[in-house]
Write a structure and sequence with these properties.
Elements (H helix, E strand, L loop, with lengths): L4 H12 L3 E7 L2 E6 L4 H10 L7 E9 L9 E9 L4 E9 L5 E3 L8 H12 L2 E3 L45
Parallel strand pairs: 2-5, 6-7
Antiparallel strand pairs: 1-2, 3-4, 4-5
Length: 173
C-alpha cells in the first residue's frame, strides 16, 4: 500500500504538534511548514521513521519574500523523496530578515552541504553547525547577497547601453 498524504500529516502532527502546520497539496506534493528551530528534528524523523522513510533530500533552496510580514521574509524550502513508495514532500521554514539562520541538515543528508553553501552565498541565510559555510560560487570578497530582492537588478552606473534599443524609453519620439 502506498504512503498516503493523510498518514504523513497525522504522523507529523501527532509527533510534533504546533511545530508543523499549514498542510496542503500542491500538484501532488504535500507541502507544509516546519518551525525553523525544529527543522533538524523533523527531517531526521522523516528520514528514520519506519513508515515515512523520506531517505533522499532532493532540493534545498532559499527564498526571499521582501514584502512579507515580520518573521517571514526568508524561507528555506526542502524537497524530500521516499523512494520505496515514490512519494515527495515539500517543507518550508520561514526566517526573520533580522537574523536569517537555521540548523544545518548536512549531517543528515550529504547533498545538503553544497546546497546550503549555495543558499548562504546567494541569500545570506546562515546554516548553524555547517562544517564549512562559506561562499561557493561568488567571490569571497562580495559583501552582498545577489538573490535578495534589495539587490539592484541593473547597474545604475552603466554608460555602455542605450535604453532606446531595448524598448525602455520614456520620450515620445
Amino acid at each position: 500500500m502506498a504512503l498516503e498524504t493523510q498518514v504523513i500529516q497525522n504522523t507529523l502532527t501527532d509527533r510534533f504538534g504546533e511545530k508543523t502546520g499549514d498542510f496542503h497539496q500542491i500538484h501532488d506534493i504535500l507541502t507544509f511548514e516546519v518551525a525553523a528551530d525544529s527543522i533538524h528534528e523533523v527531517m531526521e524523523f522523516l528520514r528514520d521513521d519506519a513508515t515515512l522513510r523520506f531517505n533522499f533530500l532532493t532540493t534545498l533552496c532559499g527564498m526571499h519574500y521582501a514584502d512579507a510580514p515580520s518573521g517571514r521574509q526568508f524561507a528555506v524550502v526542502y524537497h524530500m523523496h521516499n523512494w520505496m513508495d515514490n512519494v515527495r514532500i515539500r517543507i518550508k521554514s520561514f526566517l526573520p530578515a533580522e537574523n536569517p539562520e537555521i540548523d544545518t541538515v548536512s549531517n543528515l543528508f550529504l547533498s545538503a552541504n553544497w546546497q546550503e553553501r549555495e543558499t548562504y552565498d546567494f541569500f545570506g541565510i546562515v546554516f548553524k553547525g555547517h562544517p564549512q559555510l562559506k561562499r561557493i560560487l561568488n567571490m569571497d570578497e562580495m559583501v552582498s547577497f545577489p538573490m535578495r530582492k534589495e539587490f539592484p537588478l541593473e547597474d545604475g552606473g552603466r554608460t555602455d547601453k542605450d535604453d532606446r534599443f531595448f524598448g525602455r524609453t520614456t520620450d515620445n519620439c
